[in-house]
Design goal:
68 residues
Length: 68
């Protein structure tokens, strides 16, 4: 399994704080240690965090509309 595949499999578990999430993160961190791998992991995390930021912005907009 490639790093990209491992990260995509991790995506649905993000935010769940399940044991499986932490187990997979530990596995990924232990195997993929090159600078290129670390950059790919960092880019993936940035992408996920930006997605969360977009969702929060959308929820705030909906809340304001409902209040009006």
């Amino acid at each position: 399994m490639t790093l990209r595949e491992e990260l995509e499999d991790l995506r649905p578990l993000m935010g769940t704080e399940s044991g499986e999430f932490y187990s997979r993160v530990k596995h990924i961190a232990g195997i993929y240690t090159s600078e290129e791998d670390k950059k790919m992991i960092a880019d993936f995390m940035d992408e996920c965090l930006n997605g969360i930021d977009d969702e929060i912005t959308e929820m705030e907009e909906r809340t304001i509309k409902l209040q009006l």
